[in-house]
Amino acid sequence: MDHKTDYLDPAKSLNMPEMADMTFAVDFLIRVKEGVRNTAVAITETVSPDVRSLLRAQLLQGIAMHQELTELMIRKKWFHPYELSEQYKLDQLSAKNTMEIAEQKLFPDDHTRKGMFDRTPDEHIGGHFA
């Protein structure tokens, strides 16, 4: 089996926890941005002072969450908003890793499950009659 496609090779999991954390953080940042944007739009769509007040509070929480998450990502070197060449390198590495994962053979050629069990799951109620 080709080393590059061997999904069981422990080398494939090198730095995986860190990459997973970075991926989750980026996804979370995108969701926080969406929430801020949607809340800002919702404020402009409502006329109720109580609802506007509630949405304003949520908007401020969303902005604070965005700031906190951005600072974490910068501190961990997962995001380089002021160093575009560094961010570009990180984005290229991410794209390369994504392509390598997509090219991995994750499943065996034989997808049948025949012979994997010592009995059928419904054997206790009559097997093939169920």
Q: Could you name the key traits of this structure?
A:
single chain; 130 residues; mainly alpha
Description:
There is one protein chain. This protein is 59% helix and 0% strand. It has 130 residues and is an all-alpha fold. It is flat. It starts with 15 loop residues before the first helix and ends in a 27-residue tail after the last helix.
Task: Summarize the model shown.
The chain is mainly alpha-helical. It contains three helices and no strands. It starts with 15 loop residues before the first helix and ends in a 27-residue tail after the last helix.
Mean pLDDT: 83
Q: What Rg is obtained from the alpha carbons, in whole angstroms?
A: 24 Å
Low-confidence stretches: none
Q: How much helicity do the residues have?
A: 55-70%
Helices, strands, pairings?
Elements: H1 16-45, H2 49-75, H3 84-103
